[in-house]
Every structure is written in C-alpha cells, then in structure tokens.
C-alpha cells in the first residue's frame, strides 16, 4: 500500500464545469482547441493537440479566505477518467521542477514548507512535509506561473475521508 495519494479534481466538479457551471470568478469556462501539451486537472494527463479543452478560474479550497489562491487551469472539454490516486507521479508533471507547499487543516499555508523542487524529488518532498503533523495536505504548483496542478495527501487521510 502506498503512503501518498495524488488527487485530481473531483469527477463531479469536472462534470459541472463541462456542463457550463460557473468557475471561481462566476464565469462560464472558455472552450478552446488545444495546441497540445496543456495539463488536464481531472485526468492529470495532457490535452492533445486538436482536442477541445476548457480554461477556467479554479480555487482548490473549500471556502474563501486570504490563502485561497485562485488561478487558471485547463480541463478536457469532453469526459476523461479521473486520475487514480497513487504515489506515482501524474503524467502531466513534465516540467523540470514545481513548487511543493504544505497547508494546514485550516487551509492556510504552513510557512516555511514551500519551495521549488525538481520533479523527480516531488514524492520525497511530499513525504517529508506530510511527516509534519501541522501539514494536512500538499499542493503541487507550477514553478513558473504558480498554477495549481494537483493535491497530495497521506493515504490514510484519503481513505478515512472516503470510507475506504
């Protein structure tokens, strides 16, 4: 059994956006055709050239508060399978490095936890951060643009929350 879970956007939320639900700014997601290489936050894979995708403002936090960052993300316009949570790096993480940062149960940044990490070190850094009981989960974000990529949790937290 793995000790980490990479979590993608929920299928329910992805379906709502595909059906025109408003994004974090109250706007309808924009539909476009991919030039290739855009990362989908539901399947955590790339949106191939020529495929339709949505661009929308996403806030991966349950409520508005000072640390609830909102930013642009991409999503396949047509249904795609949700990434199966595991301790395997999602295929969309193809850049040389990412910001990896810890958040507390209050959804605030745990100061001192963030840093730019080489892609191959994301799992080790997430394990080190999640060894700290003050850190409830970790975000992986673009090192260039700070865009949200995915969430990492302890496996036991994910299983407890989902009744597994």
Describe the structure.
The protein has 164 residues and is α+β, with helices and mostly antiparallel strands. Helices cover 15% and strands 30% of the residues. It is built from three helices and ten strands, in the order E-H-E-E-E-E-E-E-E-H-E-E-H. It has a five-stranded antiparallel sheet with strand order 1-10-9-7-8. A three-stranded antiparallel sheet has the order 2-5-6, with helices on one face. The chain has a two-stranded antiparallel ribbon with strand order 3-4.
Short key terms for the protein model shown above:
164 residues, alpha+beta, 5-stranded antiparallel beta sheet, 3-stranded antiparallel beta sheet, 10 strands, 15% helix, 30% strand, globular, disordered C terminus
In short:
With 164 residues, the chain is α+β, with helices and mostly antiparallel strands. Helices cover 15% and strands 30% of the residues. A hairpin with a 6-residue loop joins strand 3 and strand 4.
State the major sheet: 5 strands, antiparallel
N-to-C SSE series? EHEEEEEEEHEEH
Overall pLDDT level: 93
How far from one another are the termini? 13 Å
Main sheet: strand order:
1-10-9-7-8
Structural class: alpha+beta
Radius of gyration, Cα only, in angstroms? 15 Å
Helix content: 10-25%
How big a fraction of the residues is strand? 25-35%
Number of helices: 3
Number of E strands: 10
Q: Name the shape in a single word.
A: globular
Spans of at least 5 consecutive residues whose pLDDT stays below 50 are: 158-164
